[in-house]
Amino acid sequence: MVLDDLGSSLRGTLDKLRGKSRLSEEDIEEIVKEIQRSLLSADVDVSLVMELSDNIKERSLEEEPPAGTPARDFVLRIVYEELVDLIGESTELPLEEQTILLAGLQGSGKTTSAAKMAWWFSTKGLRPAVIQTDTFRPGAYEQAQEMAGRAEVDYYGNPESEDPVEIARKGLEETSEADVHIVDTAGRHALEDDLIEEIEEIESVADPDTSLLVLDAAIGQGAKDQAQQFDESIGIDGVVITKLDGTAKGGGALTAVDQTDSSIAFLGTGEEVQDIERFEPDGFISRLLGMGDLGQLAERVERAMEQTEMEEEDWDPEDMLQGQFTLNDMQKQMEAMNNMGPLDQVMDMIPGFGGGIKDQLPDDAMDVTQERMHTFSVIMDSMTETEKEYPKAIGASQIERIARGSGTEEEKVRELLQQYKMMEKTIKQFQGMGSEKEMQRMMQQMQQGGGGGGGGGMGGMGPFG
Questions:
Q1: Cβ-count burial of 261 within 10 angstroms (0-12 exposed, 13-18 middle, 19+ buried)?
Q2: Distant-in-sequence, close-in-space partners of 273: CB < 8 Å, separation ≥ 6
Q3: Alpha-carbon torsion, ordered 357, 362, 367, 369, to 10 deg
Q4: Cα–Cα nearest to 109, from 242, 271, 238, 257
Q5: 176-190: pLDDT as tens digits
Q6: Rounded CA gap, 384 and 253, in Å?
Q7: Which residue from 32, 70, 184, 431 has the least number of CB within 10 angstroms?
Q8: CB-based contacts of 397: which residues, under 8 Å, 6+ apart?
Q9: What pTM was computed for the model?
């Protein structure tokens, strides 16, 4: 994920304080210089870096750490609070009727973001519509239409018209029954005068409640000028950062937020319409520093389970805790995991698993794990219903047949059966827990064992409570 390098660098810097109970001025100087290097390497604007690092230095020297607090945790908390303060609150987007205008250069991801945002609003019980006004880019109409179809939301565009202002006017009329109108505008390779003039005219017709600037996470230092010019033209209320699943540095987008005195509305984390997150500063910075994001994790789990149950209405996850755990249950669990998104993103949200632990894994570790899950699913598709219900009865001849039918090696089938045994054992532990008190005791043990730095995620409260 973009900004992973920044997070890894910051975590590595703070780890130099491990074992220290008190901080000297030399310690602070060294840490602040390392933080400056990390932020500059991530393309955060120089003036912003200096302001942030000065604040961290001043607070680290002047504030008294709570009794018994290790030096690393004390500085970690200061870095966390200053970064949250830097990016501010999430852009206000009430769950009610509204019109949103999207602006940005060509290639920033506006069209994809429009469909993703529409999908997000639809999950909140609202009826959204995407209006495509881009008459400049070839294929813009078709792409927007396809993305809106994948998101299952209303759509309006007119490939025969060359007047984007008229398309916006007509689109708002044709989709008048929608609760949320998302107006996608044309981009260019640079901020030409005609682009600014066009978007100003569309803005006057659409009369948006919110104008969002869509920025590719790879924008770098160019974000500053781009944000300024769009802000002067139509006024920017928030920023959508796209392509956070890539390898770019991402700091320029944070600079744009500060430059427009706005906030972040959404994060684009992949290519599918579901790959979008409502930005929450506490969770985002907590994840960046390796402390997890339980709020976002809970939302993904809920969404994944809903999707999995819709695909298989006869399957109830709670049945696993009541009776026998089968390979059918295991397959549905894996489908739910796949619906949560890439495993590296999910790991980032689990306190104690993102950050430091993930830094130690090979770059392709998560891809291998996802590939393994896919292989297991293919193998299970080659089994009979009886075999999936009673996997313990699977013998050598059946393993040979299943391997042949799934195009895999027998060793992979045995690996799947071993994985099943491990999961069954875990499920039985939960089945035998019984009392609510015992459940609470186990949860406390998990939290104590999985804390990251300053104390693990706390949902919407942030990692420090």
A1: exposed
A2: 115, 116, 119, 147, 150, 151
A3: -60
A4: 242
A5: 999 999 999 998 776
A6: 51
A7: 431
A8: none
A9: 0.62
- What pLDDT digit, counting tens, does each position of 321-338 carry? 555 778 877 777 776 666
Token readout for 294 is: 């339980």
- Tokens for 129, please give them: 């519509």
Separation of alpha carbons 349 and 284, rounded Å: 9
Q: What is the 3-state secondary structure (H, E, C) of the chain?
A: CCCHHHHHHHHHHHHCCCCCCCCCHHHHHHHHHHHHHHHHHCCCCHHHHHHHHHHHHHHHHHCCCCCCCCHHHHHHHHHHHHHHHHHCCECCCCCCCEEEEEECCCCCCHHHHHHHHHHHHHHCCCCEEEEECCCCCCCHHHHHHHHHHHHCCEEECCCCCCCHHHHHHHHHHHCCCCCEEEEECCCCCCCCHHHHHHHHHHHHHHCCCEEEEEEECCCHHHHHHHHHHHHHHHCCCEEEEECCCCCCCCHHHHHHHHHCCCCEEEEECCCCCCCEEECCHHHHHHHHCCCCCHHHHHHHHHHHHHHHHHHCCCCCHHHHHCCCCCHHHHHHHHHHHHHCCCHHHHHHHCCCCCCHHHHCCCCCHHHHHHHHHHHHHHHHHCCCHHHHHCHHHCCHHHHHHHHHHHCCCHHHHHHHHHHHHHHHHHHHHHHCCCCHHHHHHHHHHHHHHHCCCCCCCCHHHCCCC
Report residue 155: phi and psi, to 5°. -145, 145
Cα 165 to Cα 334: distance, rounded to the nearest angstrom: 47
Contact 111, 59 (CB under 8 A): no
- Looking at the DSSP bridge assignments, the partners of residue 129 are 154, 181
Q: Which residue has the higher pLDDT, 292 or 26?
A: 26
Angle between helices 410-431 and 365-381 (to 10 degrees): 90
Check: CB of residue 97 under 8 Å from CB of residue 28: no
Is 237 in contact with 214 (CB distance < 8 Å)?
A: no
Q: Give the CA dihedral 150, 154, 157, 159, nearest 10 degrees.
A: 50
pLDDT in tens, 32-48: 888 888 778 777 778 88
